[in-house]
Amino acid sequence: MRRHPHKSGRYPNHERWLISYADFITLLFALFVLLFASAQVDRRKIGQLAMAIQAAFQQLGAFPGASIKGPVEPAVPFVIAALQAHNSAPQHNKIGQATADDTNDADLTSLQDELQKTLAREIQIHEVALHRENEGLVISLREFGFFDSGSTTLKPGALPVLDRIAALLAIRTCNLRIEGHTDNVPIHNAEVASNWELSTARATDMVRLMIVRYRFAPERLSAAGYAQYHPLANNATGEGRALNRRVDLVILK
């Protein structure tokens, strides 16, 4: 039987180009999808980086102002929300902390005024000194007014002064750190073997007095001995060494 001419392989199929065209369109579509996805990732990364940098600078106070603002990508709402919360929360904390600091400073200033009046005689003869530090108010009890040289036992005559100090501190809730300090002259006697032991023993003896005599809550108190390593004055002179031999009552903020 003779074949029909149009079914023989001698004539080309003019519709085959559609296959190549479809393949090309599919590959082009895939390329644009990949480019779009890559662009979205880059935008998210850049946005996250910008948010993180802004949050860090605002936390440090370099950019004062409100919370982070900007377009929120649907794919990263949690990241942006977290950064906004992290940025805004410290602002409230800073305000509250500033208010608390102002209150503490006012209380310490009031206490310092009361102590200066109560201890006016002892301050005048340099048995006691008051000064402010970052941590709080410091009452320095000089050795010659409160301890015999090289002794860890408080002089009985010093108790009236401590009674007045304790009366002002007992009505407050501030914590106290009691620090023992010495000069740089080595010590070795029957009671203590080093300046470390002398400074620590004086501090802990003062803590015991605060608890037993004045009924201070033990959790308000702490003791530290620094030997000669936190001097107030030069140890090269007798006057400087006398200033360095002391017990400090640090009234903490």
Can you put this structure into words, describing what you see?
With 253 residues, the chain is of the alpha+beta class. The protein folds into 2 domains: 18-95, no CATH class; 119-252, 60s Ribosomal Protein L30, Chain: A (2-Layer Sandwich), CATH 3.30.1330. It has 7 helices and 5 strands, in the order αααββααβαβαβ. Strands 1-2-5-3-4 form a 5-stranded mixed β-sheet. Helix 6 links the parallel strand 3 (176-181) and strand 4 (221-225). Helix 1 (17-59) runs parallel beside helix 2 and helix 2 packs antiparallel against helix 5. The N and C termini lie far apart (113 Å).
Task: Please give the structural blueprint.
Layout: H1 17-59, H2 77-118, H3 120-124, E1 128-132, E2 136-142, H4 143-146, H5 159-170, E3 176-181, H6 195-212, E4 221-225, H7 238-244, E5 246-252
Parallel strand pairs: 3-4
Antiparallel strand pairs: 1-2, 2-5, 3-5
Helix pairs in contact: 1-2, 2-5
| CATH overall fold name of the largest domain | 60s Ribosomal Protein L30, Chain: A
Largest sheet: 5 strands, mixed
Mean pLDDT: 81
CATH class of the largest domain: Alpha Beta
CATH architecture of the largest domain: 2-Layer Sandwich
H/E element sequence: HHHEEHHEHEHE
Helix content: 40-55%
The percentage of residues in β strands lies in: 5-15%
**Shape from CA axes?**
elongated
Number of domain modules = 2
How far from one another are the termini? 113 Å
The value of Rg in angstroms is 38 Å
Q: What is the number of helices?
A: 7
Low-confidence runs: 65-83
Strands in their spatial order, largest beta sheet = 1-2-5-3-4
Strands, count:
5
CATH superfamily of the largest domain: OmpA-like domain
- Structural class per helix/strand content? alpha+beta
